[in-house]
Design a protein that fits this description.
By secondary structure, this protein is α+β, with helices and mostly antiparallel strands. The chain has helices at about 55-70, 100-110, 115-135, 185-190, 195-215, 220-230, 235-240, 245-255, 265-275, 325-335, 340-355, 365-380, 385-400, 405-420, 425-445, 450-465; strands spanning about 10, 15-20, 25-35, 40-45, 80, 90-95, 100, 145-150, 155, 285, 295. The chain contains 16 helices and eleven strands. A hairpin with a 7-residue loop joins strand 10 and strand 11 (about 295).
């Protein structure tokens, strides 16, 4: 006879009944409130992340208090919270929303009808207008955090990395750590410069673009996404979908402006401009294959001045154009991609020097910059200097990492290639043969990396047999 699985009860009140979603810091569960006899959602710190319970409790406290300030119907209500690390750990109990996430809808349906997109957009702008009016910036507008409820309303979820000017509600963020989702991230968020409601509008613009076109304006690796958001202009939506009219195209491109000052003034203005593209009427907007939406109404300007942000800096923000480490590395890489190799070397070296003075905590980042600078020298035909610098960095790397660490493998590869270019064939063959053995063990005989090294070894052997 099978043994019954014991029920998990949180706070002697909330019975866990299933998983909803997992995030970077917490996991959201479906639960049942045995006191008030209702279904709820409960957010708990994920197992394995509680090494610093005091800091995590403070993070949860910030999220709960920010969330509790928000009273819009499009934001799930907070019912209860435990904001210390005792017993079951910090948790937040919220209204359970029944419906589909926008991420699920996009996966199934891809590109959305223009009028359905505009309708959804007005609903979201109404929520953002309310949040911005009390100076809360979400910082993670993306399909996973948006739901279309079964009643046709739109909900914005997860204020886990939201910020507000109130120091008592500041979000804990380590220096140099960019938070958010890179596909939807505003340039100033990558740069860690001043975060304002306009930061959310940029992310909202990325979302609109994705809904209208079927993909976001920029795709690629993390580094590629950062460079695109900082430096690239997207293809206009109308070029890819001619039925999008000029006014909607202009709105989306305005939301995606690199400078916050060039974006629309606020969510209320965006709602008004989108409203002209949404179908008129009352009741529900029904589109085959998509969830019904309630026909939107325009948000009402507030007594505080239509949600205009006062400009007061948010905790952790920096003055504009003081770039984060990640953004400065992306900028240096872009210089290299543009063929401005000498400038890229100088940028990497300057950043490495600054990070070197910042203490042991930034030593790894400083080393990465020195390695990138050395690799750039190869394009400047400075092979001898590049080899010397990489050999120094390899010695330092091997003091703290095994020979098969990804960064160690990369540096060993460049050293082997440089030795071949400098016609030091026996040394190159020894380095690359050992590297090949490690690559086969770590990544497989047929891996691309192992194949590249084998080809180099073949070239060396041909040289030696001539």
């Amino acid at each position: 006879m099978a043994r019954a699985v014991p029920k998990r009860i949180i706070g002697e009140r909330y019975e866990i009944r299933g998983s909803i979603k997992s995030g970077g810091m917490g996991h959201v569960w479906r639960a049942y409130d045995v006191v008030l006899e209702r279904d709820v959602a409960i957010k708990l710190i994920r197992q394995g992340l509680a090494d610093d319970s005091e800091e995590l409790a403070q993070r949860f406290r910030n999220e709960a208090l920010i969330h509790a300030k928000l009273t819009h119907s499009g934001i799930p209500k907070v019912h209860d919270a435990l904001l210390n690390a005792a017993a079951d750990g910090p948790y937040i109990v919220m209204e359970l929303i029944q419906g589909e996430s926008l991420a699920e809808i996009i996966t199934v349906s891809g590109r959305m009808p223009i009028h359905w997109t505009a309708c959804l957009g007005v609903h979201l702008c109404s929520i953002l207008h309310h949040a911005h009016d009390i100076s809360v910036v979400h910082r993670d507008i993306k399909p996973d955090n948006i739901m279309v409820a079964v009643d046709g309303t739109v909900r914005l979820l997860d204020f886990g990395i939201a910020v507000t000017p109130d120091p008592s509600l500041s979000r804990l963020t380590s220096a140099g750590k960019v938070v958010g989702t890179y596909v939807y991230m505003a340039p100033e968020q990558i740069e860690e410069s001043n975060i304002t409601p306009s930061t959310d509008l940029y992310s909202f613009g990325v979302l609109l673009y994705q809904l209208l076109i079927g993909r976001p304006p920029f795709e690629g690796s993390t580094g590629q996404l950062m460079r695109h958001h900082l430096f690239s202009s997207p293809i206009t939506p109308r070029s890819l979908r001619p039925e999008i009219d000029a006014q909607l195209d202009e709105l989306v491109m305005g939301l995606l402006a690199k400078k916050p000052s060039e974006r629309p003034e606020g969510a209320l203005e965006v709602a008004r401009r989108l409203f002209t593209h949404a179908p008129s009427g009352s009741g529900y907007l029904s589109v085959p294959g998509l969830p019904d939406l309630i026909h939107p109404t325009l948000p009402v300007p507030s007594a505080r001045g239509a949600g205009n942000f006062t400009g007061k800096p948010f905790p952790g923000s920096r003055p504009a154009r003081i770039l984060s480490v990640a953004a400065r590395m992306a900028e240096a890489f872009q210089l290299l991609a543009d063929g401005r190799v000498s400038e890229a070397v100088a940028s990497y070296q300057e950043l490495a020097e600054e990070l070197g003075k910042a203490g042991p905590g930034r030593a790894s980042d400083a080393q990465k910059c020195r390695i990138r600078a050395a690799i750039c020298r190869i394009k400047l035909n400075q092979e001898e200097q590049a080899l010397e610098e990489l050999q120094i960095e390899l010695k330092d790397l091997l003091r703290i990492h095994p020979a098969t660490h990804p960064q160690v493998l990369e540096v060993r590869k460049y050293i082997g290639f440089l030795l071949r270019v400098l016609r030091r064939f026996s040394e190159a063959a020894a380095v690359l043969a050992e590297l090949h053995g490690d690559l086969v063990q770590e990544r497989g005989f047929d891996s691309e990396e192992a194949l590249v090294v084998r080809n180099e070894l073949v070239k060396i052997r041909r040289k030696n047999t001539r």
